[in-house]
Fold this sequence. Notes:
- The protein contains two helices and six strands; from the N terminus they run E-H-E-E-H-E-E-E.
- It is of the alpha+beta class.
- A four-stranded antiparallel β-sheet has the order 2-3-1-6, with helices on one face. The protein has a two-stranded antiparallel sheet with strand order 4-5.
- A hairpin with a 2-residue loop joins strand 4 (67-68) and strand 5 (71-72).
Amino acid sequence: MQVKLFVGNLAWGIDDQQLEAVFREHGSVQSARVIYDRDTGRSRGFGFVEMEVEDLAKVIRDTDGLEIGGRPLRVNEAEDKGGPRGPRHDSGGFGNRRY
């Protein structure tokens, strides 16, 4: 099955290739991407891995808490946010009020 994983608590020096290497032994990795701050260019400490796996629970169990670069990874199935800016379809503020 095709899954997208959220990987948090990444060490600052981890790059896309190192992230991919961690998950390669657990399935076929389609992409591994560390998220960087667009202003500073520094890692934001998390990333996403898209991969083909047979047993999602086993992959999470085997990688969550795994120490890489001196920090334990936090691995969860990524939530689908639906749309480019997330699932927020409500007004959330003053958007629909009429005065």
